[in-house]
């Protein structure tokens, strides 16, 4: 009888799909943030809604979570998204080569996100390139209160759903909205949509 294989937790992807160099960074940051807050894996699982098994594999750098799962974790430990993908770098000008881009993917591969800022330290304002395949849909959970998204469509068309509101955007259109409610990016067209997103977090209190 062939040896049984462990099932990979839901919403996890092989580390290679996230980028072999990024998955260990996420794992180290997750372990540090969880430890600093005195959370066990079980406690973080309850706070985030992400399974304990998956959190364990992410911490070990063996599996890479989807974008939505990373958002759940970031909100549970109350940090900006970038705090999970940050690694220390030297100061000075930083060139982010397209050929070396690290992309985070949705579970079905229809949505990708590329950070257009260096992974040097968490920040209050983040800049991303987003891509949606034809007919692709990305459902985002509510971010922390005070978070805003400013999106501009560089190519294609997209429907943005914020609660019960729907906004259709074409090339060159932009939208600014409070992202502390569930929202959806939907490509209803037949070509890839490229978006640029500026994410701004609320000022820390105190």
What would you note in describing this structure?
The chain has 206 residues and is of the alpha+beta class. The protein folds into 2 domains: 12-84, Orthogonal Bundle (434 Repressor (Amino-terminal Domain)); 124-200, Sandwich (Jelly Rolls), CATH 2.60.120.10. The protein has 5 helices and 12 strands. The protein has a 6-stranded antiparallel beta sheet with strand order 3-4-5-12-7-10, with no helix packed on it. Strands 6-11-8-9 form a 4-stranded antiparallel beta sheet, with no helix packed on it. The longest helix is centred in the first third of the chain and has 15 residues, at 22-36. It is globular, with a radius of gyration of 17 Å.
Shape field: globular
> Which value, in Å, is the CA radius of gyration?
17 Å
Average pLDDT: 82
Helix content: 10-25%
CATH hierarchy class name of the largest domain: Mainly Beta
Question: DSSP helix count?
Answer: 5
Report the count of strand segments.
Answer: 12
**CATH-defined superfamily of the largest domain:** Jelly Rolls
Strand order of the largest sheet: 3-4-5-12-7-10
Helix/strand structural class: alpha+beta
Beta strand %: 25-35%
The total domain count is 2
CATH architecture of the largest domain: Sandwich
């Amino acid at each position: 009888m062939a040896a049984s294989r462990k099932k990979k937790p839901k919403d996890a992807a092989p580390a290679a799909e996230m980028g072999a160099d990024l998955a260990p960074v996420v794992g180290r940051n997750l372990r540090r943030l969880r430890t600093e807050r005195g959370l066990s894996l079980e406690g973080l699982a309850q706070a985030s809604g992400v399974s304990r098994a998956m959190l364990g594999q992410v911490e070990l750098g063996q599996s890479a979570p989807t974008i939505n799962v990373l958002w759940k974790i970031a909100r549970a430990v109350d940090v900006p998204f970038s705090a999970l993908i940050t690694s220390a770098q030297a100061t000075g000008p930083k060139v982010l080569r397209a050929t070396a881009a690290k992309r985070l993917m949705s579970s079905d591969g229809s949505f990708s996100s590329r950070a257009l800022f260096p992974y040097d330290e968490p920040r209050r304002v983040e800049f991303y390139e987003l891509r949606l395949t034809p007919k692709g849909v990305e459902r985002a959970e509510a971010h922390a209160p005070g978070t805003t998204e400013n999106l501009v469509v560089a190519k294609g068309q997209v429907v943005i759903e914020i609660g019960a509101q729907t906004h259709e955007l074409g090339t060159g259109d932009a939208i600014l909205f409070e992202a502390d409610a569930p929202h959806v990016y939907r490509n209803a067209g037949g070509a890839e949509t490229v978006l640029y997103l500026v994410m701004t977090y609320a000022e820390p209190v105190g």
